[in-house]
Design brief:
3 helices; Lamin_tail_dom; mainly beta; four-stranded mixed β-sheet; Immunoglobulin-like; six-stranded mixed β-sheet; Cupredoxin; signal; LTD domain-containing protein; 2 domains
Length: 328
C-alpha cells in the first residue's frame, strides 16, 4: 500500500471515529397510578433512564425479587430503592418522582413495599437496541436577548415522551436543585417525537404544548454560563449526581456551573465551552442523538426556536461506505 493510500485510510478512520455517536441518553416514563406501574414491564438499553412519576398516593420503587415477601432492602443491596422518603408524605404534583440509570442487563424486577404483591414491575434491560424511548436534548440557547428574556430549546430526538418534572438548571439563577418543568400543578408536558419545546426565561406568557414561561428566572449570563437538564428525581436531587444529568452546554469559558458533573457523565470535556456569539445570535446543537460536547455547537445568526435547525456547519454521521466514496 502506498504512503498516500495509508494517509487516506488513516484520515478515513479518523473521520469515522469522530462521527460515531455515543449511546443516547434515552428515557422511558413509568406512571405510578391506581396502585399500578404503567407500563408494568418495559424494555430499555443499558445506560437509559427509567423515570417513575407518582400520583397523590405514596409508593416506593424498590428493586428486588418480586416472588418473595419483600422487606425494606439493606442499604446497598438493591440496585435502586426510592426509600421511605417516597412513603412519608412525598405526594402531589411537584415532589413525587424517581429515576434510575440502568447499569445492569437482564430482567430487573421491582415492587412497591407497602402495596406488594399487587404492585410489581420489571425492566428488561439489554446491552443495546431497545427502541421507542424519548431522548430529550438541549438543542438551542440564546443568552443575549434584550431584557434577559432568554430562550432554551429542548428537542425530543427519540419517541413520544413526557418532559414534565424534569429539572432545568441555569447558571447563576434558579433553585438550588434546578427548576421543575411543569405547567402549573400538572406533572405532564407531552412532547411528540421530533418536536421542540421552548423554555422562556424572565418572560410571561401562556403556557401551551410547545412553550413554558419561567418568569422567576432572571435570564442567562451573557459573558459565560451554562444550562443543564436533569431527569426527574425528588429523592436524590443533588446536581452533582452524574447519573441524573442527561444534557449540558456551556458558553464563554470552561469551568461553568455543573461542568464537573457533565464531565463525570461523559457529556462534556473539562474546561471547554462554546465560543461567545454575536449579539442576536444563538448557539445551536448541530450534532446527532448520542453526540455531545462543545464541538457539536455552532453560532446561529438567525435563531429559529421551535423551527427547523439553521446549522451552518452540521455534524453529519458517516459510514465506511460514505468514506470510500469520499476518498475514491
Amino acid at each position: 500500500m502506498s504512503s498516500r493510500m495509508l494517509r487516506t485510510t488513516a484520515a478515513a478512520f479518523a473521520l469515522l471515529a469522530l462521527a460515531t455517536p455515543f449511546a443516547a441518553a434515552r428515557q422511558i416514563r413509568i406512571n405510578v397510578t391506581n396502585f399500578d406501574f404503567t407500563p408494568r414491564y418495559a424494555s430499555m438499553s443499558q445506560g437509559d433512564h427509567a423515570v417513575w412519576i407518582w400520583d397523590t398516593t405514596p409508593h416506593t420503587v424498590t428493586q428486588g425479587d418480586t416472588a418473595n415477601v419483600p422487606v425494606t432492602p439493606t442499604p446497598g443491596t438493591a440496585k435502586f430503592n426510592s426509600g421511605d422518603a417516597a412513603i412519608s408524605g412525598n405526594s402531589g404534583p411537584t415532589s413525587a418522582a424517581y429515576s434510575w440509570k440502568a447499569n445492569a442487563t437482564g430482567l430487573i424486577e421491582y415492587y412497591c413495599i407497602p402495596h406488594w404483591p399487587a404492585m410489581v414491575g420489571g425492566l428488561d434491560v439489554v446491552a443495546s437496541g431497545a427502541q421507542g424511548l424519548s431522548d430529550f436534548r438541549i438543542t438551542e440557547v440564546q443568552y443575549n436577548v434584550a431584557g434577559n428574556a432568554d430562550l432554551i430549546e429542548i428537542t425530543n430526538l427519540g419517541a413520544t415522551g413526557d418532559l414534565g418534572m424534569y429539572r432545568l438548571k441555569v447558571s447563576g439563577a434558579g433553585a438550588a436543585t434546578g427548576n421543575l418543568l411543569r405547567n402549573g400543578s400538572s406533572r405532564t408536558l407531552p412532547v411528540a417525537a421530533g418536536a421542540k419545546f421552548i423554555v422562556h426565561l424572565n418572560a410571561s406568557g401562556i403556557n401551551d404544548a410547545n412553550n413554558l414561561y419561567l418568569s422567576g428566572i432572571t435570564g442567562l449570563p451573557d459573558a459565560a454560563g451554562s444550562v443543564a437538564l436533569y431527569v426527574p428525581n425528588s429523592v436524590n436531587t443533588s446536581l452533582a449526581l452524574s447519573s441524573m444529568l442527561i444534557d449540558f452546554v456551556s458558553w464563554g469559558s470552561g469551568g461553568q456551573e455543573n461542568e464537573a458533573t457533565a464531565v463525570s457523565a461523559s457529556l462534556w470535556s473539562t474546561s471547554t465551552a462554546v465560543p461567545l456569539v454575536n449579539p442576536g445570535s444563538s448557539i445551536e446543537f448541530c450534532g446527532q442523538g448520542g453526540q455531545y460536547g462543545a464541538a457539536r455547537w455552532y453560532e446561529n445568526p438567525t435563531p429559529n426556536f421551535g423551527g427547523s435547525d439553521n446549522c451552518l456547519t452540521p455534524v453529519t454521521p458517516t459510514t465506511w461506505g460514505r468514506i470510500k466514496v469520499l476518498f475514491r
